[in-house]
Amino acid sequence: MISQVFILSSKGDHLIYKDFRGGAGNDIVSIFYEKVTALTGDQPPVVMNHKDIYFVHIRQGGLYWVATTTAGSSPFTITEFLNRLAALVKDYCGSLSEKSVQMNFALIYELLDEIVDYGYIQTTSSDVLKNFIQTEAVTSRPFSLFDLSNVGLFGAETQQSKVAPSSAATRPIQSSREQGGKSEIFVDVIERMTVVIGSNGLLMKADVEGEIRVKCYMPSCSEMRIGLNEEFSIGKSQLRGYGAAVRVDECSFHQAVRLDEFDSHRILRLCPSQGEQTVMQYQLSDDLPSALPFRLFPTIERDNGGRLLMYMKLRCDLPPKSAAINVCATIPVPKGSMSLSQELSSPDQSAELKPQSRAVVWQIARFAGGTQLSALFKLEVPSLSSASMLEVGPVGLSFELPKITATGLQIRFLRLSPIQPGPSQRWVRYVTHSDSYTIRI
Amino acid sequence: MSVCLQLLLRSVPGLLGPHYKRFFCGYAEPAYIKERKMQVLVELVNDENVAMILDELKGYCTDVNTDTAQAAISAIGRIGRSYSDRCLQILTGLLGLKQDHITSAVVQTMRDLVWVCPQCSDTVCLALDGCEETLQDIQGRQALLWLLGVYGERISTAPYTLEVFIDRVRSEASLGIKMELLTATMRLFLCRPAETQDMLGRLLHYCIEEETDMCVRDQALLYYRLLHCGIEKTREVLQGRRSDPSLGVLIGRPAKPVSQWARCFNTLEPLSQGAVEAESDSRGSPEHVTYNPKPNADLSDTLSCSHIEEVDSGSDSAMRCSDSSTNVLASSIAAPLSLSLSPAVSPEDFEHLWLQRQALHTERGAEKIEEVDCAWIEECVRCPAVLHCSPQSLQAAMQLVNIQTLAFTPQHMLPWRVYLYTHTQRSHSMDAPNTTLILGELLCTGEANQKSGVKKCTADSEAGAEGKEDQLVRKEMDATADRLRVSEDGQEEEEGIKVILNQQPKDDDALRQFLTILITVLNTLSSEKD
């Protein structure tokens, strides 16, 4: 099975190295790093081989997580193992970064000892490991104003008690002996959109992949019930126009979820283990209930002075109260474009020409729903011909839509039973972001 | 994972048809994923979705990453084998962009397309006008020269383009371009002598007198002497095939059975076998695909019962059939195995080794022969027409894949026997031996009442190799009249050819692969004769 596991920083520093089989030479790590850096600018494939040894790696938190193995093992198992290892380290150390791995190397070695035995994977469940891991995590929490008292001016309650910062979910899970600490549950509904719009404005492909993730900081396991929308349905309906409002094509659940109340009331029951787990994953294609968030109306022409004029009108079709943040449009331009002059409608947008990736990058910090923004770009292209207008390629958009789900999935309630003795807090967050939103011109 | 998908698609072609949209590439995906997705998209093409898929691929052709763009263009070329009009339209449009990597990929794709679909040649000839200024890289220029040579009579500016190349030949660094230039100029001379004569003379003069590389010089000398033999001979040699429509039709390939790859499905083995039959786009001109350097010409001295001298002259027809056979082979040999004829085995050594192993096999009986570390296989192949091949063509065909035939009975004499050997070499071997020697015999008794069993060799060669320990002893020198085999359909007029192989040291994988190669050659030969 697995011969070695090691973690490298993005610069190639050895952070963790563990050899289970004792067979390989000392230079394994440098061989791997050479292979990775040999492919300049491009992502290396997940599985690479060097003579008889296969390297399987993932990148998370800016670190390389690598396992080496022989030809007979299943690459999917090892990739899944590496993903779970990274998730476990994240649970135990709070956040995943080079610094946290360096501070907690003893804990990580202990984890590896328990998880893998002589190259064979034993368990990656944090419930089971809770009984064996003794080391405490060391964290450095960034200073935050939210840590100051919750009480506002004149004793009134402030907004702070109702909104938790995103760093609240990044503290390490407690080991079995400590009883202190707040018990909290964070539920995230995260969706990714992949959309391709053709040059005639018609939708060619639209896919949404979503998951419900639960991060649990409760010391004892109690049952949790998550209620989804009542009208949530799975599968395509036969009659068009009579379909349910909230629909997915297929969904899959974590193995610990009990579905006896799902058919009748759309309630999921599970006992979450400490740390993060994905409770449900679902997919929807080609039939989104809401309108597409962005549409583009481009006009590309050549002016008399031999310059390329691109007039981009981007329209946001979200409901008026919501907004998209960090919107970034990447417009490929013909080779040899030299300089860009732009006219943008507001100062918080910016655009620049990136010669290496041969594209104009237009960034918008915040895009309110129901509005449209336009920009005019003038490019100097020395040898402009009518054929090179073909090179103004498909526009790629990346964005994040907070508090919105594309499928309309909502969590109606979250109940814990038995009722916890101390105050327990439940937090829910929705976000949709773009996986690959392409608009052809 | 995409490697697994490709394996799956080869066995169950219709499986992923409706889901082709899933394989459209996102713009930020890493290049290796995009290439794999494009390969899968090509396999999913059918009449309904071809327009959408071509549109998608057209969008990728202008990708920033040049490798991705070139992969997209060759994917369009492969779809063009079945849907040539649309693809040619797209390719011609891409030429208008005047970008060197795109033009180079388009010209190479057009060359490959024309080789398979000669009906596209008109459109291609029209499109080639003006390409030469934009082409910078070696493969693109080689492809252009090949096209100019073969279709020169239809391209009006061909002599002038060649003249530009010939004027620059002194500063040309690439060996492949010079060779291609020689061949193209000769071909053009044959159809347009008046315009080309002068520059051909200059080119030959340069290559023979001033060129330092021996390959080019020898080629030029060959052409010079050929011209001296007369124009008819030259035409015969140079104007070979222009196309091979049997290659590469997308739809209609026989599906490989699932059992062949099910064993290694969820492991890392498919990756170690190299690209799973991915067509290589950077090969040279199609006729040179079969180029195999032949070692040990002195083998002819030691052979007593074969006619080597006549091989060359009679090899024209053999070249043709082996051309297609090795084309098929080139795409089906898994990377690790290569065959070679060195060190040479003389007939006496062969006889000695054969009888020795035969005796050992007899002694042991049905027990496992692991101590002696050699393997036996016996298979039956149904291709009776091989009997009607001349020994020379059989030998030439075998030699092209580096199998040496040592002895055979004269044509049309029964029982018909051929003895052959080869050395297998594995480049990537973990626990298998690096080289093995395989001795083989092909036998056909030709008795009408002998029932011959047919085993599908590719699917069951695994079973055949593993069942070798169970096979009873046979002495092939004895009469085979009383041998009966289980038959599925007892046809009496068609006989099968029995293939007996002995390999030392034992390497099951190599033996199986060799058996596949051998059977492919036999099948090709017999189909040529039909």
UniProtKB/TrEMBL annotation, chain A:
<dbReference type="InterPro" id="IPR036168">
    <property type="entry name" value="AP2_Mu_C_sf"/>
</dbReference>
<keyword id="KW-0813">Transport</keyword>
<dbReference type="GO" id="GO:0005794">
    <property type="term" value="C:Golgi apparatus"/>
</dbReference>
<protein>
    <recommendedName>
        <fullName>AP-4 complex subunit mu-1</fullName>
    </recommendedName>
</protein>
<comment type="similarity">
    <text>Belongs to the adaptor complexes medium subunit family.</text>
</comment>
<keyword id="KW-0168">Coated pit</keyword>
<comment type="function">
    <text>Component of the adaptor protein complex 4 (AP-4). Adaptor protein complexes are vesicle coat components involved both in vesicle formation and cargo selection. They control the vesicular transport of proteins in different trafficking pathways. AP-4 forms a non clathrin-associated coat on vesicles departing the trans-Golgi network (TGN) and may be involved in the targeting of proteins from the trans-Golgi network (TGN) to the endosomal-lysosomal system.</text>
</comment>
<dbReference type="InterPro" id="IPR001392">
    <property type="entry name" value="Clathrin_mu"/>
</dbReference>
<feature type="domain" description="MHD">
    <location>
        <begin position="182"/>
        <end position="440"/>
    </location>
</feature>
<dbReference type="GO" id="GO:0016192">
    <property type="term" value="P:vesicle-mediated transport"/>
</dbReference>
<dbReference type="InterPro" id="IPR011012">
    <property type="entry name" value="Longin-like_dom_sf"/>
</dbReference>
<dbReference type="Pfam" id="PF01217">
    <property type="entry name" value="Clat_adaptor_s"/>
</dbReference>
<dbReference type="GO" id="GO:0006886">
    <property type="term" value="P:intracellular protein transport"/>
</dbReference>
<dbReference type="GO" id="GO:0030131">
    <property type="term" value="C:clathrin adaptor complex"/>
</dbReference>
<dbReference type="InterPro" id="IPR022775">
    <property type="entry name" value="AP_mu_sigma_su"/>
</dbReference>
<keyword id="KW-0472">Membrane</keyword>
<dbReference type="GO" id="GO:0005769">
    <property type="term" value="C:early endosome"/>
</dbReference>
<dbReference type="GO" id="GO:0005905">
    <property type="term" value="C:clathrin-coated pit"/>
</dbReference>
<dbReference type="InterPro" id="IPR028565">
    <property type="entry name" value="MHD"/>
</dbReference>
<keyword id="KW-0653">Protein transport</keyword>
<keyword id="KW-0333">Golgi apparatus</keyword>
<dbReference type="InterPro" id="IPR050431">
    <property type="entry name" value="Adaptor_comp_med_subunit"/>
</dbReference>
Automatic annotation (TrEMBL), chain B:
<dbReference type="GO" id="GO:0016192">
    <property type="term" value="P:vesicle-mediated transport"/>
</dbReference>
<protein>
    <submittedName>
        <fullName>AP-4 complex subunit beta-1-like</fullName>
    </submittedName>
</protein>
<dbReference type="GO" id="GO:0012505">
    <property type="term" value="C:endomembrane system"/>
</dbReference>
<dbReference type="InterPro" id="IPR015151">
    <property type="entry name" value="B-adaptin_app_sub_C"/>
</dbReference>
<dbReference type="InterPro" id="IPR016024">
    <property type="entry name" value="ARM-type_fold"/>
</dbReference>
<dbReference type="InterPro" id="IPR026739">
    <property type="entry name" value="AP_beta"/>
</dbReference>
<feature type="domain" description="Beta-adaptin appendage C-terminal subdomain">
    <location>
        <begin position="337"/>
        <end position="523"/>
    </location>
</feature>
<dbReference type="Pfam" id="PF09066">
    <property type="entry name" value="B2-adapt-app_C"/>
</dbReference>
<dbReference type="InterPro" id="IPR012295">
    <property type="entry name" value="TBP_dom_sf"/>
</dbReference>
<dbReference type="GO" id="GO:0030131">
    <property type="term" value="C:clathrin adaptor complex"/>
</dbReference>
<feature type="region of interest" description="Disordered">
    <location>
        <begin position="275"/>
        <end position="295"/>
    </location>
</feature>
<dbReference type="InterPro" id="IPR002553">
    <property type="entry name" value="Clathrin/coatomer_adapt-like_N"/>
</dbReference>
<keyword id="KW-0472">Membrane</keyword>
<dbReference type="Pfam" id="PF01602">
    <property type="entry name" value="Adaptin_N"/>
</dbReference>
<dbReference type="GO" id="GO:0006886">
    <property type="term" value="P:intracellular protein transport"/>
</dbReference>
<dbReference type="InterPro" id="IPR011989">
    <property type="entry name" value="ARM-like"/>
</dbReference>
<keyword id="KW-0813">Transport</keyword>
<comment type="similarity">
    <text>Belongs to the adaptor complexes large subunit family.</text>
</comment>
<keyword id="KW-0653">Protein transport</keyword>
